[in-house]
Amino acid sequence: MVRSWGSRVYLALIFLFLYAPIAVLMVFSFNSARSRGVWGGFTLDWYAQLFQDRQIMSALYYTLLCALLAAVLATALGTVAAIGLSGMRGLPRLLASNLAYLPMINPDIVMGLSLMLLFISLKIPLGFVSMLLAHITFCLPFVIFSVLPKLKQTQTELYDAALDLGATPLYAYAKVIIPQIRPGIVTGFLLAFTMSIDDFVVSFFATGNGVTNVAITIYSMARRGMNPKINALLTIMFAGVILLLFIANRRLASDTKSKQSTLFTK
Amino acid sequence: MKKNRIFCVLLIAAALLAAGCGQNNAGEAETIIVYNWGDYIDQSVLRDFEQEFGIRVIYEEFDTNESMYAKLKAGGTAYDVAFPSDYMIKRLIDEGGLEKINFKNIPNYSLIGDRFKNLPYDPQNEYSVPYFWGTVGILYNKTMVDEPVDSWGILWKEKYAKEIFMLDSQRDAIGLTLKWLGYSLNSKSDAELAMAQAKLVEQMPLVQAYVGDEVKDKMIAGEGALAVVWSGDALNMMLENEDLDFALPQEGTNIWVDAMVIPSTSEHKEAAEKFINFMCRTEVAARNCEYINYSTPHTEVLSGLPEEITADNRFYPGEDDLSNSEVFDDLAAMLPLYDRIWTEVKAEYQ
Amino acid sequence: MKKKLISGPYLAWMLIFSILPLFLVVWYALTAESEGERVFTLAHLSRVFEPIYLRVIWRSLRLALISTAFCFLLGYPVALILTSRHFKRHTILVVLVVLPMWMNFLARTYAWLTLLEKNGLINHILAFLHLPAMNILYTDAAVILGMVYNFLPFMILPIYSTLYKIDHSLIEAAEDLGATPLTTFRRVIFPQSLAGVLSGVIMVFMPAVTTFVISRLLGGGQYTLIGNMIEQQFLTTYDWGFGSALSLFLMALLLITGSVLMRSRGEEGGLW
Description:
CATH superfamily of the largest domain in chain B: Periplasmic binding protein-like II
Distance between the termini of chain B: 56 Å
Shape of chain A: globular
Structural class of chain A: mainly alpha
Number of domains of chain B: 2
CATH topology of the largest domain in chain B: D-Maltodextrin-Binding Protein, domain 2
CATH architecture of the largest domain in chain A: Orthogonal Bundle
Strand content of chain A: under 5%
Largest sheet of chain B: 6 strands, mixed
Oligomer: heterotrimer
Strand content of chain B: 15-25%
Number of domains of chain A: 2
Number of strands of chain A: 0
Radius of gyration of chain B: 22 Å
Order of helices and strands of chain B: HEHEHEHEEEHHEHEHEEEHHHHH
C-alpha cells in the first residue's frame, strides 16, 4: 500500500514536470496583458486576433499543406520502396534498407544544412518546394519501417494463388497484398504527418523566401517576445490532438495492439 | 474502420487547407518578398500596400545584418526588398549584391532629410533609401542602478554581475568594446582586436545573457539592470516601464542607418520600387515611426513628432552630440578575423 | 523478378536527398575558396581540433551525458510504475507521457522561461513560501532541465515496452523462491529491460548532443554547444567550410557512439 502511495506521488510529480509548461502556455493564451509573466485578466482577444494575423496564418497554412503532402507522397514512395525491398535479397537488400536508416541517425541539424547545400547547388529556390522535399526525405524511413514488418507477415500463397487464377501482378498486389499491409501504411502515414507538423530544425535550414512553418515562427517569436496569439494557436492545436486521440481511442477500443504501435513510436 | 480514420484525418486537413487558401490565395497577383528586421514595421502597412497596388507581399524577418547577409549570399532566394544597415549595404554593393534603384520611381525620396543622403556607404545615392536611423546605448533600470551611466565601462562592473544583457550581434558587441578601450569601432589592428576579444571574454561571467529582440520583454519585466540596446527599442521600453532610462556613453557610440535596398536576385524590381516609394509616403512612414519609435530620416514625419522626443539628443542627436561616434565601415578583408573573434568569444563561455 | 526494380524511385530519392547532400558537406569541409575556385585544404578540419572548439565539443558531450543520466534516473521508475499491477489503466498513463510531445517543443521549452525567470512563476511561489529564490535561467542547470524535459518520454517509452513484455511468471517464480523485491529487480527485471534502456539512452543522447534550440532559448545567445556553433557558421558568419567540418566531426562522433551502443544492445534491428 505504501509503495503504491509513493508511486502515485512520484508519477504526479513527473506529470507536473511534464505538464507545467503546457499549462503555463495555455493559461497565458487567455491573458489580456501582452507581456509574459504578468496576469492582466481573462480575455479571448488573442483567439480572435489569431485569425487576422497573416504571418501566423500563412505559417499554419504551409505547415498543414506541407505535412499533408509530405505524408501522402512519403507514404506512396515508402510503401512501393518497402515492397521492392522485400523482394530483394542479400547484399543489395542490406545496403538498400540500411540506406533508410541514414535520415534517422543523421542529426537533424546536419540533415538540414546538407539539404540546404544541396538545394543551393542544384539551384532549387528555397521555399515551399525545398521544404517539402526535405520533409519527404525524413518521413520516408518511418513509412518504410512501418510497412516492412507487415510485409514480412503477409501470406504470399494468396498472392501466388491470385496469379495462378489469372490476375495480373499489379491487380493481385492491389487486391491481396495491400489490404494485408494496410495497418502498416496507416501507421506510416500518421507518423510521417506528425513528424512533418512538428519539424523545426530541418525546415529552418531548408526554407526561405518568406515561407515559414509554425515551428519557425515560434522560434523567431521566442527571440523577440512570444505573442500570446501563438499560445492561442497552440492551445487550439493541442485541444485538436486530444479530441482526435479521444475519437481514435473510442473507435479502436477493441484494437488495442495497433493503437499502441501508433502511440509509441513518435 | 481504418479507412474511416484516414478519411477523417484527410477531411480535417482538407478543410483546414481550404480555410488557409482563403487567406493566402490572391490569385495571379504579382508577389514581392520583403526581408526586414524583426518587429520593425507596423504590419497593417503591408495590407494597405497590397490593397492599393494589388501586389501581394510575403514578409520575412531576420535578427542581425550578418544572418541576413548569410541568407542572401547563400543563394536560392529571391528577396525583392531588404533592410540592411550601412556597412552591410556597402559590402553588398561592393560584391555586386544590390540592384541600382531607379529613383524616378521613388518620388517620395525627396522627403528624406539631406543629412541622410550621400553617406559613405552609398555615396552616389544609387542603391538605398533610408528607413530609420539611430544609435546604440545603455538602457538601465533606475531602481537597480544608482550611479550615473555615462561609460561603456559600467558593463564590466562586478556589482552588476548577472544583471547585464549584451546585444547578440557581432559588430555591436565588438564595436562597443573597442569604443570603451578608446579605439575606433572599425579597428583593423590585430592588437586592438585581441584586447577587445579579451575584454569580451572577461565580461562573459557578468552577463546574464546575450540576447536579440527578447531584451524588450526582459527589461520591461525588470529581469536585469543594464542592457545594450538600439535607441528606438530603448524609447519603446521606456514608454512601457517608467523605471527604465537610456544613456549614450561619453566614449561615443555607433551611429547607424537602416535603408531599403533591392537585392540583385529580385525578380520584381518595379514592384519593389513601388513598395519602397510607398514606405516613404508621409502617412505610412509616420505609422511605422509611431509603431517602432526609431528615429526617422523623413522630414515631414519628423516635423509632426512631439517636441520632447525630437529635442531629446539621445534619440535625435545632432551632429555635435555625435562628434566621437562612428558609422560602421565594411571590414572587407578584415571580416574573417571579426567572425573568428565572435565565434571564439562565444566558444569561451564557461 | 521485377519486384526489386520498383524500389528504384526510392533508391534514386535517397541518393539525391540523403547521400549527395552528405558529399556536399564533405566537399565544403575539405575545400576553401581561393581566387574564385575551391581548392583542397585541411584548414577547416584542423581548426575543429583547436582547444577552444574541443572545449565546446566536450561541453556538448558532458551536458548530453548528464541529461541522459537524469532521464534514466527519472524515467526508469516511471516505466516501472506504469507496468506495475497497481495501475489498471496504464494505457491512459502511457498516453499521458506521450501527449506533451504533440505540442510544439519550441513553445514548451520557451514556456520554461516564464517559470524560471527571476520574476518568474517558480520564484513567485518560492517567495510565497518564504524560500530563497533560485536563478538558474541561462546556466547549465537550465539547459539540462530543458533537455531532460524534452527527451524524458524518449527514455520512458522504450523501457516501458521492454518491461511490459517481461513474463510475469518469472517474477512470481523469483518471489516464490524467496527473493526480496530488490533482488527480483536486480536479478530478473533489470537485466531484461537493458535493451530498452539502451534504446532510451540512444534516443536521448543523440538529440541532446546536437541540439541548438534548447541551449539558445534557455542558455542565452552566449551558450554555445556544437549545434550552436554549426548553426552560427551557416546562418550568421557564412563560413560553410568550418561549419561543414564541424558537422563531419559531429557525425563521426555520433556514428561511433551510436554503433558502440547498438552493438552492446545486440542484433535486434533498428533504432526503435
